[in-house]
Write a structure and sequence with these properties.
The protein contains seven helices and three strands, in the order ααβααββααα. It is mostly helical.
Length: 175
């Protein structure tokens, strides 16, 4: 069946979206492929198998499997079963607010919590030290800790909050 202009326009828009979303991945601390898979499954109306993902993105089975597993761990994809079919299918979370919450939760766990742990440990270990260098070190780490704790509280609110409450708060904040 010949492709219509509308089909080509939609395919082009999807390809553009996948490329742009993939380019954002490294800025989020995830691989380009992980971002591509996430984007693909967000815009596909039906769940896809690993083979479908491999074919659509022209990636290896190992790469597809590893990144699908990671996306499931982040809560951005879920495995679905079709009656009478033994294959695993995957679909993306399509609720944008839930996507944001999943990303915030994963980033907090991977990045912010380890930093807070290190800051706490360094401040605890240097508590009794005297001298200008120790005071300057502790003052700098205390400021970093204060900022990181603020970020932690904001992320916790995003994780737990309803989108309408958070968006209302952000809108007021940005005025």
């Amino acid at each position: 069946m010949p492709r219509t202009r509308r089909d080509r326009t939609l395919e082009s828009a999807k390809a553009s979206f996948l490329a742009e979303w993939a380019a954002l991945g490294p800025a989020w601390g995830v691989s380009r492929t992980m971002s591509q898979i996430h984007a693909l499954l967000m815009v596909e109306p039906e769940p896809m198998t690993t083979d479908d993902v491999m074919a659509a993105l022209e990636i290896s089975r190992g790469n597809a499997h590893l990144n699908i597993k990671e996306l499931c761990d982040w809560g951005l994809l879920r495995k679905v079963k079709r009656p009478g079919d033994r294959k695993d299918y995957y679909e993306a979370e399509k609720d944008v607010w839930k996507v944001v919450q999943s990303i915030v939760r994963a980033r907090k766990r991977k990045e912010l919590e380890p930093v807070l742990g290190t800051l706490d440990r360094c401040l605890r270990d240097t508590k009794g030290l005297k001298g200008a260098e120790a005071r300057a070190f502790r003052a700098q780490l205390t400021e970093l800790q204060r900022f990181a704790r603020l970020g932690d509280r904001v992320m916790a609110k995003v994780e737990r909050g309803a989108s309408s409450r958070i968006l209302s708060w952000v809108t007021r904040f940005l005025r």
